[in-house]
Each structure stands twice: as structure tokens, then as C-alpha cells.
Amino acid sequence: MTGTTSVVVLSGGISHERDVSLRSGRRIADALNRLGWQVRTAEPDARLLPDLLQDRPDVVWPALHGASGEDGSLRSLLDVAGLAYIGSRGAAARLAWDKPTAKRVVADAGGATPASVTLTREVFREIGARAAIDVILGSMPEGLVVKPARGGSAQGVTVVEAADQLPRALMDAFTYADEALIEQRVTGVEVAVGVLDADGGPEALPAVEIVPRSGFYGFEERYTAGATRFYTPARIAPEAAAAAGELAALAHRAMGLRHLSRADLIVDPEGRPWFLESNVMPGLTETSLLPQALLSTGRDLSTAYASITERALAGD
Ligand SMILES: Nc1ncnc2c1ncn2[C@@H]1O[C@H](COP(=O)(O)OP(=O)(O)O)[C@@H](O)[C@H]1O
Ligand SMILES: [Mg+2]
Asked: Would 1 be classed as within a structural domain?
């Protein structure tokens, strides 16, 4: 590749992860600048599409988190505009963004994911909260996690330890999405596993173990310095680490994800990993999980990002 590859890195946006996105964007731009490429950053605003259509950069890197970056819509627009971009295509991103659908696809492909029920706000109201809650508690008695069916950064997510917390947890989830996912809680070691496409197929990076001081990996625990400790590689048995890598790669393949993704998993005390979700544009800041995992393998970010850019330029 010559030194003239032109890249537009999209970052910012209006999601609550705006700040993380701006930091990811700067970090990506730094890594690509080191290759001597022509890199510019842009915000996803009203000027974006006209500017992109006029400039027609070789490749676009949508480093956007939250709905605007990960729900697939912007990617679908890039698809129809015929612009090459980094990461999953619109349809695959939409699938992964919808947690209940993602879980179904991963389960059908043979991956383990906690038992769950998905409830719309309408059904919850129509059949009565009490009746719904009784059925849920009857089928999943040993602890639940309630979350918006679509969302990120643990917003609207509650670990329900006592039955009387469930109504409030559902209402919280419904403030972020029209559907709530009520999932069996898995206790164990939380890990994040980055996946990068390589010539032989998707390759899992070492699992990063997440240990929040508060015990729950919530919004504050993600974005406050010192609130969470990370261990790379995760302090789990080699067999469990291998199984986590296999599950992350299986999720990437089953959902048809492209270039990079990061699976959020919990490894139970038997060493069995459970799939929670895959993120199609994981954080790529200096402290984010995927770059930490990549650096731990001795690879450098510029080379890794150049290699996925080459895939995007080649159309795969
Ligand atoms: N089934 C579960 N069992 C235990 N903890 C969970 C479960 N689901 C989610 N969590 C916790 O909630 C956090 C957020 O859930 P996740 O599904 O990854 O959504 P988000 O898109 O908000 O990151 C996870 O990082 C994990 O700490
Ligand atoms: Mg997550």
C-alpha cells in the first residue's frame, strides 16, 4: 500500500459514549498517521455524507459507539454510497446490536448464552407486571440481570438479587429501549475477548479479565480511572481461556461480523464461558480492552489497523 491511503475517522456523535469515541478516534488517527497515511477525523453531523461523497476517501473508520455507531444505520448508508469502511456491515451490526437476536444466533451456532426472556413494554403493561414477574421468577429463580434489549455501557442494566427489585429493574431497562432482556445471572470471571479477522478466519486475542472494585461493571466502573482492574491475559485456566477465545470467534462468525469485534463473556466456576454480547465497534482508546489485548501479544496497533484496512479496501 502506498503512503497516500486516505482515511476519514468518524468519532464523537451524540451518544453518552461521545467522549470515549473521540478518544478512540484520536488513537486510531495516531496509529494510521504513523503509517504516513492521509487521515482526517469527522463528526457524524449534517455535513458528513455530503463531505464524504465529495472527498470519497479510500476508507472510512466509524469509531462511533452507542446506537449511531453500532446499530448499523450509518454503515448501511456507507454501503449504499459505495464507500469502503472498517468493521461489520450494516445488516450484521444491526443483528449484533439487538442482544436477544444475537443470543439466538450464537446459541443456534452452538455457543452457550444464559437463559433469557425478552419482554416488550406493551406486553408487560397488558398482561400485568405482577403476573409477568411471577412467571419470570418461577423459571429463573437464582438471580437475574435485566437490561435494555439494545444499548451499551451498562446503561439501564440491573443485577437483580431480590424479587422485589425486579419491577424497578424492568422500568429502568424500559427507559432505554422498548424491550427488556431478562437474563439468568452467571457468576464467575468477566472477560472481554477481542476478535480480529485474519487470513485463516477470525482470530481471538487473549481474554482481558475485568475486576470492578464495586463488584458490578457499570458506567462509572468503565469510565472512572482506577474503578476497575484489568488483567491481560485473564487469570483463568488455559482451557477456559481457549474456550473463551473459541466462543468469541464463534459469535463473530455466526453473526457475520467483519474485521473486528469484542465479545463480552462470563466464565463460570467450571471454566465454561457464557456469551453476553458482541460489540461491533469496541472502544479503542489508550486504556480500552481490545488494544490492551493486542499490545499484550507484542503486536503494534498501526500494523494491526493497517491489516484490517487492507481487508476493507479489498472489499472483505
Ligand atoms: N447474565 C449476566 N450475568 C452476570 N452479569 C451480567 C449478565 N449480563 C450482563 N452482566 C453484567 O452487566 C454488564 C453489561 O451487560 P452487557 O450485556 O455486556 O451490556 P452492555 O451493552 O451495556 O455492555 C456486563 O459487563 C456484566 O458485568
Ligand atoms: Mg457489554
From this structure: no
Q: Are residues 204 and 215 both part of a single domain?
A: yes
Total domains in the chain come to: 3
Query: For the whole model, what pTM was predicted?
Result: 0.95
Best of 17, 150, 157 for a ligand 1 pocket test (most atoms within 8 Å of beta carbon):
157
Say if residue 178 is in the same domain as residue 191: no
Rounded Cα gap, residues 71 and 76, in angstroms: 10
What is the pLDDT confidence band of residue 173, given thresholds at 50, 70 and 90? very high
**Whether residue 185 has its Cβ less than 6 Å from ligand 1:** yes
Residue nearest to atom 27 of ligand 1 (CA): 217
Asked if 105 and 277 count as a contact pair (C-beta separation under 8 A), the reply is: no
Residues of the domain holding 161: 116-184
What's the pLDDT tens digit per position in 133-154? 888 888 877 789 999 999 888 9
Q: Is 25 exposed, middle or buried (0-12, 13-18, 19+ CB in 10 A)?
A: buried
Q: Nearest Cα to 280, choosing from 30, 68, 39, 7?
A: 68
